[in-house]
């Protein structure tokens, strides 16, 4: 085969190269982070083919995530590519071909109201150093926080807005082009995902109904109030939060969020 023909085939070859999974029970997720829902699980030694790679949540020092031909993302830490660098082209986005919209201030204010604020570093019930509105620090000094500690409430909200990024990405990733949301409706769903986790929200009837093209206002008002239970008990704090999210979603705004324009 001529060199020119080989070069023409190179992108195709790279995009379909097979690599071995290095550990057992490796989760492949809907986006490039552990907050995204699990779409399938790979066994140790299984071959996976990669379509593209993208930066994401750091796993054991590795920031790169690999998108497989199964349409999901796995940390490059678990894939035997032979390098920590790119072996195929970059993906168009993290869990989506477009960037997730940033939440508005009303959403930040809503989440901060229910998360509670601590200006100084403390140890949460799971043993993690924490500060602000529930920010989990990377170490006991919270050196990953770019704002001075003790935190002001204003900087606490700035840090919270940074922490909301993964939830914004997962709401964007799990909704299709049929879903039309303004920033307040979007913010209500980001708050819901921030509270309940992206794994829980992804398989919900709320997301399924939105992706089927149902009216967002109707779906949010009917579905969010169902998410008020913990260990089989209705929790007053969750009732208040869901009511606040529905109220935000029903607040009129002309600012559009989804679908995003690439």
From TrEMBL:
A single GO BP: peptidoglycan catabolic process
Keywords from the named record: Antimicrobial, Bacteriolytic enzyme, Glycosidase, Host cytoplasm, Hydrolase, Signal
Coiled-coil boundaries: none
Keyword Ribosomal protein: no
A GO MF label: lysozyme activity
Record has Hydrolase as a keyword: yes
InterPro entries: Bacteriophage_GH24 (IPR051018), Endolysin_autolysin (IPR033907), Endolysin_T4_type (IPR034690), Glyco_hydro_24 (IPR002196), Lysozyme-like_dom_sf (IPR023346), Lysozyme_dom_sf (IPR023347)
Catalytic activity reported: Hydrolysis of (1->4)-beta-linkages between N-acetylmuramic acid and N-acetyl-D-glucosamine residues in a peptidoglycan and between N-acetyl-D-glucosamine residues in chitodextrins
Signal sequence annotation: 1-18
TM region positions: none
Domain of life assignment: Eukaryota
Annotated PANTHER family: LYSOZYME RRRD-RELATED, PTHR38107
HAMAP family for this protein: ENDOLYSIN_T4
Name listed for the protein in its UniProt record: Lysozyme-like domain-containing protein
Organism: Podospora fimiseda
């Amino acid at each position: 085969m001529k060199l020119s023909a080989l070069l023409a085939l190179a992108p195709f070859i790279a995009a379909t190269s097979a690599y071995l999974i290095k550990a057992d029970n490796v989760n492949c997720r809907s986006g490039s982070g552990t907050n995204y829902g699990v779409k399938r699980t790979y066994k140790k030694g299984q071959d996976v083919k990669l379509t593209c790679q993208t930066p994401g949540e750091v796993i054991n020092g590795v920031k790169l995530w690999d998108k497989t031909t199964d349409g999901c993302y796995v940390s490059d830490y678990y894939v035997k590519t032979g390098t920590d660098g790119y072996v195929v082209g970059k993906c168009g986005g993290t869990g989506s071909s477009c960037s997730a919209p940033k939440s508005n201030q009303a959403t930040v204010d809503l989440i901060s109201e229910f998360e509670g604020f601590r200006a100084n570093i403390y140890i949460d019930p799971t043993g993690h150093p924490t500060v602000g509105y529930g920010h989990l620090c990377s170490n006991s000094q919270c050196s990953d926080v770019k704002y001075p500690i003790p935190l002001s409430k204003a900087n606490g909200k700035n840090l919270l807005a940074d922490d909301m990024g993964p939830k914004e990405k997962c709401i964007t990733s799990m909704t299709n082009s049929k879903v039309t949301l303004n920033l307040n409706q979007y913010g209500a769903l980001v708050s819901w995902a921030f509270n309940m986790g992206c794994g829980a929200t992804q398989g919900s009837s709320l997301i399924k109904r939105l992706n089927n093209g149902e009216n967002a206002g109707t779906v949010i008002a009917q579905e969010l109030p169902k998410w008020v239970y913990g260990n089989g008990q209705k929790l007053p704090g969750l009732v208040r939060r869901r009511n606040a999210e529905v109220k935000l979603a029903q607040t009129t705004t002309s600012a559009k969020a989804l679908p995003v324009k690439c």
